[in-house]
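Moderator note: this is an archived Q&A kept for reference. The question asked for a predicted structure of one protein chain; the sequence and the answer are reproduced below.
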Amino acid sequence: MSSQLLEVAGLTTRFETRSGALNAVEDVSFSVAEGEIVGLVGESGSGKSVTGFSILGLVDPPGRIVSGSVKLNGRELVGLSHADLRSMRGREIAMVFQDPSATLNPVLTIGTQMRLAIAAHESLSEAAATARCVDVLTIVGIPDAGRRIEAYPHQFSGGMRQRVAIAIALLNRPKLIICDEPTTALDVSIQAQILTEMKSLAARLGTAMIWISHDLATVSSVASRLLVMYAGRLIETGPIAAVLRQPHHPYTKGLLNSLPGVAEPGQDLVQIPGSMPSLVNLPEGCSFRPRCTHAEDDCTLLPAFTTEGARAFRCHHPLNLPVSASEARP
């Protein structure tokens, strides 16, 4: 995984609302290597999904990308025409949404929808297209795929419909799949199966993934690197094991403390006080300052994104820094 498949630099996406302009994504930069699974986490409204939509070029008025760059295999995606973006989606980059009902047409069979997805990007005979569909459905765990391919979405369970949505994303062998909380609405047992299968698919097919979720526990089981967002900005990144073991940003620490597995039996969960601020009226300096127990006077200034080895964070008073790094900071 030496080459970077996706490079996002300084991405800012703005929405015009009645209350004023807001940056749902502000100055976000990260990269994804070939075959890598990156987790993107944060509370609802933190900008996770808008980041994914921005990469795919799916942000329409009143939203727009106002600055930054998104490169896939070195090709700039920001500013591409709608036609160019449509030809790229599904073939080079795909997305799996949280609700498969939003992806699947209820009046068309699964096979018809899958063959249409193939026909959008290449010319295959119906027999060859059907054979590919059956193969992909089998890969994602649909039993008796050769028969069930002609069933309608309502004839599948919720977990099976999500597998079909994943299969459609895989049909044209894209190099990158953005997964926007694809297992949130599923039973825990089905969720675990799909997570295992997606991780296996990434390893076997060399497909890179951005796994968007509000659930650190889910992301930790599938991703190798973690990106933490708050109020539209990235606030911490790094190898997932290192971030979970010793978070540098107080917000990341708060997310970890709120996990059910952290509290002792019978004890209340430790919640982050307050709620995320309105993106129209962010607090001065660090957006997390009003909720942070480590905030000091200098937090009224926006902290820079600081890199320490494989880790990076946006905080004036980071936690768990090595002694040498702590002494080197002012």
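Archived answer notes: The chain is about 30% helix and 25% strand.
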